[in-house]
Structure formats: C-alpha cells, structure tokens
Amino acid sequence: MKKWSFALLSLMLIAVLAACGNNKDSDSGADNEAGAPRTVELKVGASPTPHAEILESIKPELEAQGIRLQIVTFNDYVQPNQQLADKQLDANFFQHQPYLDTENKERGFNLVSVAAVHVEPFAGYSKKIKSLDELQDGAKVAIPNDPSNGGRALLLLAKEGIITLKDNTNIASTIQDITANPKNLEIIELDAAMMPRQLDEADLVFINANYALEANLNPEKDSLLIEDLQGNPYANILVAREDNKDADAIKKLAAALNSEAVKTFIKERYQGAVEPAF
Length: 278
Known about the structure:
Layout: H1 2-30, E1 40-46, H2 48-57, H3 59-64, E2 67-73, H4 79-85, E3 91-96, H5 97-107, E4 111-119, E5 123-125, E6 140-144, H6 147-159, E7 164-165, E8 178-180, E9 186-190, E10 204-207, H7 209-214, H8 219-222, E11 225-226, E12 235-241, H9 248-257, H10 260-270, E13 275-276
C-alpha cells in the first residue's frame, strides 16, 4: 500500500513539474527574455513598388522594437482601404490624401492619415510620340478613372495648354469640366493599374509612379510631362483607422517611415523617381 502511495505521489509531482514547465514555455513565447516586450504583429497593405520596398527596409528596426511587420501587397487601389476598414489590415501605405478623402466620402470609411512618407511624381508617357508637339488631332489619351488621379492628369494637360478646364487649379476636375479641347483628344478613363498596358494603344498615357516603376519607367527620365514636386499635395501617406491610429505599434511604424534611414533609402534607391515628403 505504501509503495502504491509513493508511486502515486511521484506521478503527481511529475505532472505538476511538467505543467510548470509548459507554463514557462508559454510565458517565454510572449516575452523572449525577462522584461522583454511582447512581440506585436502589424499587418500592413501596400503597393509592391515603392511602398512594400520601403516597408521591407524598416523591418529589422521594427523587429528590434518588438514589432513583426507583415506586408500584404496589392495591385489595385480598392482592396487596401476596404480591408483596412474591415480590420483585416492594421494600416496601409499606397495612397495620397486626395484619394483617401474621396474614398472616405464615397465609401463611408473612417480612415485617417498618420504620416506623410514620400512623393511620387505623376506623369504622362508615350511610345508613339517623342514630344507633346507631336500630339495629333484626335489622339487617344488614357487617364486613371478615379477622381483624384484623373484630375491630376487633366491639370497636367491644362498646364501645358492642351486643354482648358473650368478651374485649372481644381484637383477634383473631371472630363465634364473641360471647356476647350482644340486637338479633339479622345480621353479614355481606365483603372490606374491598367495604364502601363495602354502604352501600346494610346498616344499619351498618364501613369501613377508606382505602376510606372513596375513597368521600368522613370518619371524623371521617361515622361513627356510631369508634376512639379514643389508644393505637391499628393504625398503618399501611412493610413490607419480612427480606432487604432494612436496605438503604440502604429506610432512606431510612422516614426520608422519618417526616419533618416528611410530618407536615405528613398534617395539612393529611386534616384529622383520617388522623393521623401518629410
């Protein structure tokens, strides 16, 4: 009887020790070392170029601060905001403020800018002509179909005197605001992601810089007309929701994106095709 009691006590002691060991392992999963911060996973949606590349460059810095950055890339401008609003993402990095304003208004989102990071010069490109003087009567011009970027294209055309708008400073201009079109341009509105493919079809194509870079086009070197970066209102921004914009991890991400290391990365990597906005 005593032997059985001793054996039972021994088994109970082993079970208790094993449980303690498991608890210790579980605690170490939250804190790698005594007093070390718990690792937080931050899921950020981004366009592949240059946004995801910039985010990749700050991964080690954030990891050292206890933030594991998960980058989800998108090739469109619709899903990153939808998924952020649906809390499938913690933040996104692909858009400028005028586009965000339109999205919030038209789709009922409550998304906010956290930090301005860089400016991508919007520009017009062509495989068919070498200067704007060669733009013929009835030429096809492709512009993005979202209001903010379509407006950017029209403002550039107006600045060059190719068309006239009701207000040549209104960034929300649409084709309905064209008051004069001397060359009878055929203006085609398409999704921004489709613009590089229009280079074989249209005479002049307006392409956002992220899509231009993916198509091996440099806005500074390859475009026929380009936005002025001075006073440019289209800085690309880190965006979060109203309910998480003040979270510690979001603040650390914003600080990393506005660091001198990122400024150097942008200047060295993109050689003027992308410029820091801070």
